[in-house]
Amino acid sequence: MIQHHLRVPPGPVDLGEWATDATPGFDGDKEEGKAALEEVGQELSELQERLFAEGRVADDVEEREGRGVLLVLQGMDTSGKGGVVRHTVGLVDPQGVDITAFKKPTEEELGHHFLWRIRKALPGRGRIGVFDRSHYEDVLIARVRELAEPDVIEQRYDEINEFEAEVLGSGVRVLKVMLHVSPETQKERLLERLDRHDKHWKFNPGDIDERQRWGDYQRAYEVALERTNTEVAPWHVVPADRKWYRNLAVAMLLRQTLQTMAPTWPRVDLDVEEQRRRLEEEDPLS
Amino acid sequence: MIQHHLRVPPGPVDLGEWATDATPGFDGDKEEGKAALEEVGQELSELQERLFAEGRVADDVEEREGRGVLLVLQGMDTSGKGGVVRHTVGLVDPQGVDITAFKKPTEEELGHHFLWRIRKALPGRGRIGVFDRSHYEDVLIARVRELAEPDVIEQRYDEINEFEAEVLGSGVRVLKVMLHVSPETQKERLLERLDRHDKHWKFNPGDIDERQRWGDYQRAYEVALERTNTEVAPWHVVPADRKWYRNLAVAMLLRQTLQTMAPTWPRVDLDVEEQRRRLEEEDPLS
């Protein structure tokens, strides 16, 4: 089971001990990995449809809360958060997915508690929510760039844990994934963006400024992973130097999450024979 | 060019003259159609990424409006609106797509003008918006079920035309598609939902009530198509008895729309040499 390899054990975290170019839990090469992703995609797709179906039927009975999934993607620039959304999340029906890319907070967002914009983007019943960056930015860039007082940031770890427990309490599973790249891979990917005119739009000179603080960011990640690595919402570190493995690993984690929820085709209170009779006898053309 | 076959010519509309099981503009069979869809998907995917890139760069320069696409899907129950979202829209990066399924209006929505909820769902710069049902419900079910006074409905056709012209003025192309099924196909598909326990959740006894009014709905569609078939936002009728053709035809229409917009990789004001130097010389690891 891949999650045994990727789940962060409780206690202090040293990212230096986590490989960025390994393929833990998968024996094959790139071609085999891509084939495996297609297979996992089929299963994911069916599981997602069942979850969606559950949510739709629950709608009718006006239950207030219901089951959903929240995939939180974090990682340094170029670690492939967008790639995972495209290649892994893209495997399931887009009708059941809500993707939110959290950018630099707006003026309005800054006027609220840091979880305000996060709560607004939570997935509803039967849906898979995907956060490309998240509330963790408020203890990552906020810590490195000192965007808030130390005691405010200190408090945020606890607030995040309470928030995630509350999300779980409403029926939404939280799957937290850090995409872990090496600084060498980041450099290669930034250079590629400079080399290719069709990638220029992705290049932001500010990314190099952040890169200067690589060590500070790694440390901020270590603290965040340690402080918010709860039983109910544990962290996973996915080696992300190989794009194919990264996509496959997140797909497998998502599949595992959905399998644990075991969504089933909802039982509908339906008199099948009566409905069939109506269809046969009340034909608008006859 | 497939749109020449599918675009509704100006003037009165008689849906009886439009085949539901034909494959206009495509010579192949089902297998060839599926292969063609994959090819079109590759092109769609690249066009969508360019559009998205344009939108992202425009973000930075704080342009207020920008280019986007709005795909409006209408059709009777079981005509395959959801299938098109899954199989055609699902071919492009889900990060660039905003899908809205318009259900029966809520109390809050009913307290507003019928276009209120529609405006809120319009796609932003660089994005493809998809409406699974739309403002057209307000002249379709509203007309058949007399949910508004006749003069109110009468006025809505003009309001829709003004609204769509306004949307186009803001840079968003409007692609309107009616998925056209026969009542026999609908019956088959409803029976299939009854036969399969994994489809029961999709079955709504109310669909049979609406089916009784097949003729009224066809007439309401004919009026809507005629009255809102403007030069800037024309209607297309896609034969939808064959799912593979339906998916392919909408993909081809969407590709054509994007090709006409001709999105290009944005020119970014970037000193490539300077950025490369910074990356080489300011390595956080050296």
Molecular structure report:
- The structure is a homodimer of 286-residue chains.
- Chain A is of the alpha/beta class and 286 residues long.
- The first copy, chain A, has one domain: P-loop containing nucleotide triphosphate hydrolases (Rossmann fold, 3-Layer(aba) Sandwich), CATH 3.40.50.300.
- Helices cover 49% and strands 11% of the residues of chain A.
- Chain A has 12 helices and 5 strands.
- In chain A, strands 2-3-1-4-5 form a 5-stranded parallel sheet, with helices on both faces.
- In chain A, helix 2 runs parallel beside helix 11.
- The first copy, chain A, is globular and about 75 Å long.
- The first copy, chain A, starts with a helix and ends in a 5-residue tail after the last helix.
- The model of chain A has no long low-confidence stretch (mean pLDDT 94).
- Chains A and B meet through helix 2, helix 3, strand 2, helix 8 and helix 9 of A and helix 2, helix 3, strand 2, helix 8 and helix 9 of B.
- Chains A, B: GO terms for molecular function: polyphosphate kinase activity.
- Chains A, B: InterPro entries: P-loop_NTPase (IPR027417), Polyphosphate_phosphotransfera (IPR016898), PPK2-rel_1 (IPR022300), PPK2-related (IPR022488).
- Chains A, B: One of its GO terms (biological process) is polyphosphate metabolic process.
- Chains A, B: Keywords: Kinase, Transferase.
- Chains A, B: This is PPK2 family polyphosphate:nucleotide phosphotransferase.
Concise account of the structure shown:
Chains A, B: Residues 31-261 form the Polyphosphate kinase-2-related domain. The structure is a homodimer of 286-residue chains. In chain A, strands 2-3-1-4-5 form a 5-stranded parallel sheet, with helices on both faces.
